[in-house]
Amino acid sequence: MTDQTNPSVTTAAPSPRPRAASGGFLGLTKRDSTLMLIVFALVVLAPFILNPFPEGSAMAQFNAGYPDLMQRFVIFGIFAIGFNILFGLTGYLSFGHAAFLGVGSYAAIWSMKLVTLNVIPGILFAIVVAGLFSLVVGFVSLRRSGIYFSILTLAFAQMMFAMAYSVLTPITGGETGLQIKNTDTPLFGGPTDGSIGRANLFGAEMGNSYELALGNWLFTFNLGYYIAAVFMLIAFYLSIRVFRSPFGMMLRAVKSNQQRMNYTGLTPKRYTLWAFIISGMYAGLAGGLMVAMDTQVGPERMFWTASGEVVIMTILGGAGTLMGPILGAGFIKYMENIISKINKDILHEWFAFMPDGLEDVMVSLVYPFIGKGWHLTLGIMFMLVVIFLPGGLVEGGQRIAAKFRRNKTAGDN
Amino acid sequence: MDQIIVQILNGLDKGSAYALIALGLTLIFGTLGVVNFAHGALFMLGAFCAVILSKILNISREVLVEGETDFLGNPLMRDVPVVYDWFGEAAGAAIIDWNVPLAILFSIPIMIGVGFAMERGLIKHFYKRPHADQILVTFGLAIVLAEVIKYFFGANPIQTPAPAAFTGSLDFGVWLGFDPLTIMYPYWRLVYFFFSALIIAGVFAFLQFTTFGMVVRAGMADRETVQMLGIDIDKRFTFMFGLAAAVAGLAGVMYAPIVAPNYHMGMDFLVLSFVVVVVGGMGSLPGAVAAGFLLGILESFASMPVVVDILPGINQIIIYLVAIIILLTRPRGLMGRKGVMED
Amino acid sequence: MGILTVKGVNKRFGGLQALGDVNLDVAENTCHAIIGPNGAGKSTLLNVLVGKLIPDSGSVVFDGQSVLGRQPHEINQMGISRVFQTPEIFADLTVMENMLIPCFAKRDGAFRMHAIQSVRHEGDMIAKAEEMLDEVGMLDKREMTASSMSRGDKRRLEMAMCLVQEPRLLLLDEPTAGMARADTENTIELLKTIRREKGITMAIIEHDMNVVFSLAERITVLAQGTPLVEDIPDNIKGHPKVREAYLGEAQV
Fold first, then answer.
1. How much is the ipTM here?
2. Pick from C166, C190, C219: which residue ends a domain?
3. B73: in domain
């Protein structure tokens, strides 16, 4: 597809000694290093980048730089990055990954209720538990391929959702889910004054924020967000390494030709199972972080439509590309939280410069697609991407860039 | 004994709906080889055909009521459905009351049209693409259709009652010699069961006894051979898609009194009906029907208090459990052919 | 005692006796051809050898170890590589990646969680892959996506993928089937060179007599699931039984 998916493996001279990565760092090529730097800058500077409009201005509603949403960007980014390792590389379409996210969330909240309010053990526990669940589900589901695999994962996830919702109420809190209560007494350092404990990192609470006012602009730097962001950067870095590794190449071989793999002395199922487990652990990490940011969990985050959402994120952004899942997650969460809030009045303000009749026409034309109708736009975009742009928004961007380059060279000549 | 009969009866109407949706899914899959995640949405559209017809029938004009005033002393206006003007008050009221059965006639051309449009406009471009792409694009379409319905009809369920004549329950037990009131079965559910049995029989008869059906069955068995015979199978497949859409739509129309139509009912039924198709065996029509009823009844047995006491929560997961076990031990399902869809 | 010994193998599909008491002995460092009319059981035999089918009775021993009941990937790891009738390659991957995968399979075994090290830093493997590509004359195509190549090149690539594993036995399933004349000639040349220079043992199933007689050092003729004759090519050419088997087919 692009050089993102086909790393140029022969750039190194055939000398037996690995060359020091030329121009890159952390063992990445120059190109991947650039990508890593861009993501790093975007994530660190997000409080600025997402708040481009001054407070109180008409455009302020498009500001997305508040902690809650920024946390969601990176957490769902992690979820989608992990899903992409499975779907993007091996082509196995799981419709049940939200279950692992949910399992991770439950694991994390129990860690906070029983052990410590420090988020780190909770998050690690979430990753481990989600990994174990995905080992079991993956092991069984991978005995089938194609649509059967999709339906098996779907059935497992729905079963887990139904059980969390009903039978397992003692563990999952049933329909209402679990929260941290003032009756919880974690082993290490819970509040002693009967107040509700708060998630923290060695004493610093997730909710801590530093606000910076510059003129009319207000920027919020939230501890929880930056902790989630660190995890996301690590997750992204690891996914680059996986993509560029022999293991990642094997995963793409799984998608391409399992028969040839078998006759080359390889076991495609074991490779796929590990991809499944890794993506399950990414989901668990995302689930754990969700609990760390907002200490509660309910079964609805395991429902199959939640699994569908990560599928949409990954494909919309670009399955099999490095940046795609992050873009897709960001795009969908932005729509869900910002675009969905636009109502008719706001639209009338926008089109106020038009003559009255035309204004009404424009409003009624645009309204179904934004505000509460954002799902419609999303569904249409998703269909268009599946039909025309298998590489998602990333491919779209590359095509546009290529066109510009061509035009430019044409102009130069 | 009476408990068992009650559970079988309870399972029948849900099973009928599963069977009808699974039948349509299998028709599409068997003939066109397409995995249609938007099939639940067709069911939902069918249910909304009943809603739309009821809205149309209730289009009213305001009529001044002579000699009466409202509490403010203004002349009293009353809404009178237009159908009253056309057919008289008694007949008009009956038409409105019989809205759901009438919607059957109303929905057939609509659903066939929707099916044709879907196949010609979208699905036919996906015959050659991987099943994953088919799943994804139809999943996207399902979202779009649900959202369009939500835009026009809102997010809340819309009550769509059955004709008054069918509102009560049948004391089924008395027929079988049980005490009165032990086995009650709502009339409409009975109607639904017979209606689906009729449609299923119709589809099978159509495939069995018409030349058209023969070609389609041959096409299901071996598409390329039939194409080589010079039969324009594509056109017939388009028609099959329309038929499958109509079957799903009818299942939805008649289900409207049982579950008030809402925009996400398609998604709710979709997952289950896929499970049904897989259990029945991908591409097997009898399998789909049998599995539909079987799982419907199984589900209602699993919700018996006795069973739930022993295995708590089993009612919630039984269908998925069965699906997983079947998929692992007998991948072709109850009646499917071997190797279908195993990429 | 050859490197591959098949003894008394039977395989039945319902009422059809696909293989009946097949004995075969492939000597080390030879090219052994298995020929026979359509439906003689050549492909069934091949599938038994690579672990895709399990015979009803009999034994298949490779290098002193039984291959029966082993998975295809295990049999490959024992040292048997297979070239398919239609080239089986990783079509979405580049030529270089196609080559690296067998290199890794040879070095790391059937599975290795090798997820952090970059492929770029696998200098040894890259060198090995490039050397092999150079030998088959495809070094200039290493960045091409495999699916975009001609059929002849795909066949060449598949062979290179098998050879880079340095197999003890190379199984070839009609390697020139459906090829244009020039491609067929090229493939024969390539196989001859490999035979000459690497001394790899080959077992080849082929329809094309031209291919068989240019390559084989020993030939087994299979008819209706049973070996008719086994001999050197010169003796096979005019053998009455062989003629009967083929003519018999022609009369039907």
1. 0.90
2. C166
3. no
